[in-house]
Amino acid sequence: MNPKDILIIRFSSLGDIILATSVLPAIKKKFPESSITFLTKLDYVEVLSGNTNLTAAIGLDREELKLKELIRFAEGIRKKYDLIIDLHSNLRSFIISLYSDVKTLRYKKGSLRRRCMVGHAFTRGILPFLPEVYKKEDNVIENYFKALKTLGISYAGELPDIKTAGVKTSPVRTIGIHAGGKQNTKRWPAERYAEVAEYFAGKGSKVILFGDEKDKDVNAKIIAGVKNKQNVADLAGKTTLKEMISKIKECSVLVTNDSAPFHIATAVKTPAVVIFCATTPKFGFADRAKTNRIMNVELPCKPCSLHG
Fold this sequence. Notes:
The structure is a single chain. The protein is an alpha/beta fold. It is built from twelve helices and eleven strands. The chain folds into two domains: 5-151, Rossmann fold; 174-296, Rossmann fold. Helices cover 32% and strands 16% of the residues. It has a six-stranded parallel sheet, with helices on both faces. Helix 1 runs parallel beside helix 12 and helix 9 crosses helix 10. 38% of the residues are buried.
């Protein structure tokens, strides 16, 4: 197989899209003359800008993701691509491959294993009786590469990669903190993050608090617990996605919950301390960067749900 026009699909979420960038260099190396396009949600196109392994990144807005418009989009690309690499495997990506009638290689999510790990004791009790493939610790990046097996592309320890513009270097050690997250159960308490911020700010380090508009309250709680407030900068809701990525690259280390900034840190080669509360690294979303440190908070329900 020698595809000339390749479409890669991953609509969301931000962290998953960042993990998906790990396959791009390998695809480009295998097919250097091919056109490679990444299809995602409009909100996430920014994170793919500047990626030299891509010819283009396409973002669909909320209206374009509705069924009728999605079918229209799929029919419109019928003769444009000769291979789809589906790294999402959801209803929308199925619709695109169905109505475009383009040959598709599809990522297998392994949802059954994760579902057996959460919930009631009964479902967890099923796990030992499943085939061995369901028992080992998962790795999402490795599973992305399994979808490329028929192309002669295999996993060789690749990690996410995001291109950033020139980054300022600071003579002062900079500690990044991301205390937010979509699910509250993924969040380590603000009081604990305040202790981390106070420790480093007290030693003269610069502390940057990341987040969006929804994280302003948790960041305010952290700042309230810090004496040396002059050493703390709150960027919640004040940066674009690309600006946040650049700021994370400036950090000496990022302390974060199990959330997208964790994967951003890996992609820009910033060491990260990642705190898993209600989720578990066994779900496969903890990349294998040697510079990262995984901290597991023991909870009786852990893993408490599929998404935290």
